[in-house]
Amino acid sequence: MYTLNDYLAMLSDQARVSSYTGAIDALVKPADRVIELGSAFGYFSVLAVRAGAAVVDAIDMNPVVHLGPRVAASNGCADRIRFHHEDVSRFTPDRRADVIVADLRGPTPLAGRSLEILIDARRRMLRPGGTMIGRRDVLYCAPVRQPSAFERRVMAPLGGGAEVNLDPVRAVATTTPFQCTIDSDDLLSPGMSWGEIDYASIETPHHHGTAQWVLDHDVTMSGVAVWFEAHIGAGYCFSTAPGRGDTTYSHLYLPLRAALPIKAKDSLVLDLAAHLVSGHYVWEWTARVCPADGGECSVFAQNSIAERVIDPAAFE
Predict the structure, then answer these.
(1) Could you report the per-residue pLDDT of 130-150, keeping only the tens digit for each?
(2) Judging by beta carbons within 10 Å of its beta carbon (0-12, 13-18, 19+), is residue 260 exposed, middle or buried?
(3) From start to end of 134-290, where are the E strands?
(4) What is the rounded CA–CA span in Å between residue 54 and residue 180?
(5) Please, what is the angle between helix 14-27 and helix 43-50, to 10°?
(6) Nearest-CA neighbor of 6 among 45, 50, 78, 63?
(7) What is the pLDDT of residues 153-178, one digit of tens each?
């Protein structure tokens, strides 16, 4: 669960905050009813009131929501924001909203139950023709060399030099998704879109897509970098692409079991899929390399099932 300092760090992300501020100001109309999901202490709720909202329901399971009434009072809008400390899935508004404001993303929008929550909220809480802020996210990926954070935290000797063999742990950690900051220099080719999430129409939390490159030089690929570009609404957007500077969002690194050499002019196709299972995403990633001379393609497939370490007693 996020701490108070985590929420303050999110507000220090100028690209994120300015995009949401601009979209709220442009899209919230006088007398609108607004719902903010994952509101924390209600920063965006206050902005919605300033844009003209008559009533804002700010909802969060985190106890930091109890600071909300003080924030609202100090900004002169305590009578127009109602704070709710509860699970969004159990909240039922007294009337459907004109606008829903939400940022439930992690390193990608495919984070825990976030899409499931947003789909349910739109169906139950938003009036027909209502507005979602953010509006849509474009998913990007690229082949990469091994990020320094992965090398430092997973591949380097562990345990302060103590002679404890952790190979069984590393065998899992080196083949499952890893959240970190990926530098732009780690990219072996420019990012390509592998899909889009439209919050006004999405009906499933699962996602699948493909991206393709023709390499212009020889490379050795260690994994796949995943990030997103957020289109908040009214033309406001921001990107979490590697090299974009200080951002509250990290990236997702999908490692390969073994480094994959790719020759110049070869075609690389990445097939990515994320399946929501019991509140957690299971990822699949497949790299297909096709030689420029028309030879047989090589296929390398992985998934993150091993990341969900299961108690053997569950099978008894």
Answers:
(1) 999 999 999 999 999 999 999
(2) middle
(3) 136-144, 178-180, 192-198, 207-214, 219-233, 236-239, 251-262, 267-277, 280-290
(4) 40
(5) 30
(6) 63
(7) 888 766 666 677 888 888 888 888 99
